[in-house]
Amino acid sequence: MIGDSNSAQEQGWNSLLFKLHSLQFLASFSAWIALFYIAVLAKELGLSDIEIGTIATLYGLCLLFSNYMFGSLSDILGTRQFLVSGFLFSSGVFLAHLFAFNYSSLLYIRILTGIALGVYPAALFSLAFNTNARMGRFSSYGALGSFAGLTSAGFLSTVYGTKSLFVLGSIAFFLAFVVSIGIREHRSVSDQNSLHPLKVVMENLPTYVALLIRHTGANIIWTFWSLYLIALGANSFYIGMITASNALTQFLTMRYLCDKLDSRREFNSGLLMSAALFLALGFATSFWQLWPLFALIGVVWGFVFVGAVRTVVDHSSQRGAAIGLLNSVLNMSSVLGPVLATVVIVFGDYRTTMYVGAILSFASYLISRRLNSPSHTSFLP
C-alpha cells in the first residue's frame, strides 16, 4: 500500500512537471515568434526609428511593473490563478495586433502586451522550483519554444506576412491557458506580512545589478536588430532563421550544461563572453557573418540567465518575489535599452549599438566580480 501511494505521488509530480515544461515551451514560443518582428511591423505601418524606440520603451516599462507586482502577488495568493489569467490575457492581446494600423494603436496594444506577459512568469518559475525541477532543464524548454517560434516566424512571415505571427502566438497562448486549467496548487502560500521585498533585493543585489547592466546593453542591440539584419541583406526568412539558431543553442546549453556548472562562475563567464560577441557583431559586413556569432550568443545567454536564476532561488526564501524581481530587472533593461538605443541611433547607426552593448556587458562583468568579492558579500545589516 505504501509502495502504491509513493508510486501514485511520483506519477503526480511527473505529470505536473510535464505540464510545466509544456507551459514553458508554449509561453516562450508565443512570446518569441513575433519579438524580432515588432520593428518590422512598425516599419510596415510607416513608423520612424524614434517611434519604434518609444514603443519598445513603454512596452518594457509595463513588463517591469507587471513582473514585479504579479511575482509578489503569487507569493501571497498562490500561483495557479496567475498562470490561468496570464495566458488567457496574453492570448487576447496578441490577437489584438491584427488591428494595429498606426503609431497610437500599436502603442496601446504593446502596453497591454507588456502587462499581460508579466502576469505568469514568476508563478511559473516558482511552481517549477517547488516541484523540484532542475532550473537549467526547465529553462531549456523555454529556449526550445523560442527556437520553434523563431523558425516558424521565418516561414510564416515570408508566406503570410508579419501579422500572421501574432495569430499563431495567440493560439499557442490559448493552448497554454487550457493546460494551466488542470494544474493544482502544490504548496501553501505565504503570509503577506512575511514578505520583505527590500530583503529580497539586498540578498541578490550583485546578480540584479550586473544583469541589469548586461541586458541593457543587449536590449540596445535588439531594439534595431532586425533592421540591422535587413541593412546587411537579410530578408524576413533569414531574420527568423538567424534568431532561431540562437534559441537552439540556448536550448542545448541550458539542458545539457548549465546545471553542471557553479552558478556564480557560470554567470560571470556569460557576462564576459557577451562583451566579446557583441563587439564582434559590429564588425560584420554581411548577415551571413552574423549567423554563427548570434548562435554563440545563445550559449552565452544560457550561462547568464540560468546562472542568475539558480543564484537567486538558492539565496531567497521568497522565491516568487525573487524571480519576479529578476524578471523585473530584465524588463527594466527592456526600458533602458530602447531609450539608449534611440539616443545612439540619433548620433550613430545600427552598428554603433553593438559597440555600446559590448561596453556595457564588459562593465557588468567588472561590477559583478567587484560586488561578489569577499569584502562585498554582505548587503544586509
Name the descriptors.
381 residues, Growth Hormone, Chain: A, mainly alpha, 0% strand, single chain, disordered C terminus
Shape: globular
Low-confidence stretches: 374-381
Q: Average the pLDDT over all residues and give the rounded result.
A: 83
Q: What is the helix fraction of residues, given as a range?
A: over 70%
Report the CATH architecture.
Up-down Bundle
CATH superfamily: MFS general substrate transporter like domains
Rg for CA atoms:
20 Å
Largest sheet: none
Strand content: under 5%
N-to-C order of helices and strands = HHHHHHHHHHHHHHHH
> Structural class per helix/strand content?
mainly alpha
Overall structural domain count: 1
Determine the number of helices (DSSP H or I, runs of at least 4 residues): 16
Instruction: Write down the CATH topology.
Output: Growth Hormone, Chain: A
Q: How many β-strand runs?
A: 0
The CATH class name reads Mainly Alpha
> Cα distance, first to last residue?
51 Å
Short précis:
With 381 residues, the chain is an all-alpha fold. The protein has helices at 2-33, 38-44, 49-77, 80-96, 103-116, 121-130, 135-160, 164-181, 197-203, 205-223, 225-231, 236-256, 263-281, 287-314, 319-347, 350-371.
What would you say this structure looks like, in words?
The protein is an all-alpha fold and 381 residues long. Helices cover 80% and strands 0% of the residues. The longest helix is centred in the N-terminal third of the chain and has 32 residues. It is globular and about 50 Å long. The C terminus is likely disordered.
